[in-house]
Amino acid sequence: MPTLPPLDPNDAEPIYRQLYWRFRRSIADGLLKPGERVPAARALAKELGLARGTIDNAYALLTAEGYIEPRGQAGTVVSHGVQTTLPTRVVIAPYHAARQHAPLLPFQMGLPALDAFPRKIWSKIAARCVRATQLADMANPPVQGLPALRTAIASYLQVARGIHCAPEQIFVTSGYRNSLSLITHALLKPGDNVLVEDPGYLPTRPLLNHLHIQTQPVPVDHDGLCVQHLGDARAVIVTPAHQSPLCVSLSLPRRLNLLEWASRQQAWIIEDDYDGEYRYVSRPLPALKSLDREGRVLYAGTFSKVLFPGIRLAYLVVPAAQVAHFEQVSQTFLGNSPELTQAIVASFMAEGHFARHIQRMRKLYGERREATANGLRKVLGEHISIDAQPGGMHLILRLKAAQSDRLLAEKLAAAGIYAEALSGWSVNQQISPGLLLGFANIDSQARAEALGQRILECLMA
C-alpha cells in the first residue's frame, strides 16, 4: 500500500475524516487500485498511533460509500468500478466556528460577569455528566424538570431566599417568558386584567398582550410598586427585590399590603426575582414568597443572571394547592429544557459551586459597580447623576440637560456602546431622561473612564 499523507491534529476535520479523504485521494490518483487489499484496521491503528475506533470509523464511511468492501478472510479491498475523480472536499467547520455570535458590547444589559464564570469547573462537571449518560437519560425528559435539579433548587431557595417549598412545587422552564406563559395558560384566561409595574420589565406587556391578556400599568416610586393604586385584577407582576428597571426594593409595609390585596381580590402575585441575589448595602432581602401564607404568590427565578444567559434555564415555584393543575398544563407547554443541561446545573448546585459562585459575584459586582460609577462620574460628572441603588446589575445615569435619552441611546449604539433609554421602559409615568448601563463586565475604573469619553462625545454631538 502507498504511504498516506500525514494527518494533521490541528485540522478542522476529525482525524477519521482526514483518513477517509486520504484513502479517497489514493484511490482517485490510482495509487490504490481496484481489488488491492487495504491494511487491517488493527495494524493501521498501530502504525499511525491512533485508536482502533478512529480507523473503524474511517473504514465504515469508505465501506458505506462503496470505496472498499470486506472479503472475509481475504481482508478488505478496494472496490471495483469506484469513482476515480475526487469531488470537492467538504470541510466540516470546527465547533467554535459554528457558534458565531454578534460581539458583546460595553454596558450590555442582562449579562453577568462572563469573564469570572468558573468555566473549568463547569466543563469538568459537564464532561462527567456526558460520560454518565445512560440510555434512559436519552429518552424524553420529565416535563416538570429533572428531580435532582428541582431538589437542589428547593434547597437553595430555603437557605438563600427564605422560601419553604417542596421539589414538587418547582417547575423547570426555559426562561422568564416560558414561566410567564405557563402561568398564563394555567391561571388566566383571555380578557383578564393583569397589573404591571410602570416603569417595568420590557418583555412582560407584549407577551401578555400576545396571549390576549390586558395589562394595566401601576406607578413605582422609591418604595417600589405603589400598592395604593392597585385595582381590580386577576394578577399583578412585581419585582420586589430589585425593581426592574429602577432597582428599588419593595418596602415591608407595601409587601404586606400587596399580600392583603391578593387575599381580598383572590388574585395572584407573580414575583419576578431576576437578580435578587445581588444586593450590596446589606444582606439580600427575603423573597416576597417567604411571607405568603395563603398560597397567592408564584415565584419566578432564573439562572440567566447568576450563571449565564446562554443556558436558557429558569424555574417557577407554584403554590402547593396548584401543583396538580400545573402538572396537567405543563404536559402541553413544558419539556423544552435539555435534561443534560439540567443535570449539569443540578451537580453544580449540589456540590456547592453555585453558592460559592454567587458569593464571589456579589463581592465582584460591588467592586465593579463602584469602579464603573467612579469612572463615569470622573468624565461625565457635570452632565449626569447616578442613582444610589441597593443592588442590581446596572446603573441608572440621569441626564441633567433636557434632551432625549432615546436619541442618545441610538447615538451610543452607532458608536458601539450598549445603552437603554430609561423613558422607553415607562407607559404612563413621566420619568426624567436617563440611561441604563450594565456594569457587570466593566473590569476597571480606567475602562469605565475610556467608555465615558465615548459617551461624552455622543452627548455633546
TrEMBL record:
Domain of life, per lineage: Bacteria
Protein family (similarity comment): In the C-terminal section; belongs to the class-I pyridoxal-phosphate-dependent aminotransferase family.
Residues annotated as domain HTH gntR-type: 13-81
Molecular function as annotated in GO: DNA binding; DNA-binding transcription factor activity; pyridoxal phosphate binding
PROSITE patterns the UniProt entry points to: HTH_GNTR
Spans through the membrane: none
Database matches in SUPFAM superfamilies: PLP-dependent transferases, Winged helix' DNA-binding domain
Keywords: DNA-binding, Pyridoxal phosphate, Transcription, Transcription regulation
Name of the protein: DNA-binding protein
